[in-house]
């Protein structure tokens, strides 16, 4: 028996950062995001020899251990260990023996929610294997608790819910970890136009998002007026962009993205840098009407809205920076799991 799972990565369109405590606890947060055709994958192969083997195919890392109720965190594939520890403690109630293979279509620290999406995919695989009846909110909340609470990793809540639910979603975040996911029914023609007009660009550099998020949390906690006001505006902008998408008013999207990028940079100085500013200016000069860093900032993926046949001009303008253009489509499905009988 082979158990497989995949979960989609996401583009954060608006409101990024307002899902992070303490801001979301005090003011409430709004996020608009959409999942794309880049995935985190997990495969479980049960074993009968009392061994555990964890293998990250894309990172070329492997951990082998004796089956136990808990695996120690030591900096080696700790995300995989964290999911296993939670599943055993809450559901299996006994040590398990298996191989767990993982792969992610984008590098860690790239701003597409890779870590949280991988956690969701692994939870999905375990749920499929052990027949654990988990709903979408259950999976997303468990993924959040494993990362943010049990492993102490800084970050927000949107990535886990995007990967679990899939599609275009407007998300609301409140105190006491209350989350409301509102799926959006975007016209197919609007989705196709978005795909046609968006350039997804990997800068070639990754970053440790937790450091940027820690700076954001510090500003929110200490009440830095400029930072908090920027988050207020980002939250409102998520509402405006949601309405523009639902009404098919895509001509406003680039303008909204540009405005949001200016607000986002006010949250903490670490969000942008001279290289990112230069890339952004080059895209704007070539015809892009707006764009932003995907995720916390500091590096990773950027995306640009390029209307009226300006897409190729923007791509050409980005070539001197040595990054990578990544093709994608928007996808509706969230985490998906299945089994394969090796004897079939």
Automatic annotation (TrEMBL):
InterPro entries: GHMP_Kinase-Related, GHMP_kinase_C_dom, GHMP_kinase_C_sf, GHMP_kinase_N_dom, HddA/FKP, Heptose_7-P_kinase, Ribosomal_Su5_D2-typ_SF. It comes from the Bacteria. Residues 79-167 form the GHMP kinase N-terminal domain. The keyword Transcription does not apply. This is Dehydrogenase. SUPFAM superfamilies: GHMP Kinase, C-terminal domain, Ribosomal protein S5 domain 2-like. Keywords: ATP-binding, Kinase, Nucleotide-binding, Transferase. GO terms for biological process: GDP-L-fucose salvage. Belongs to the GHMP kinase family.
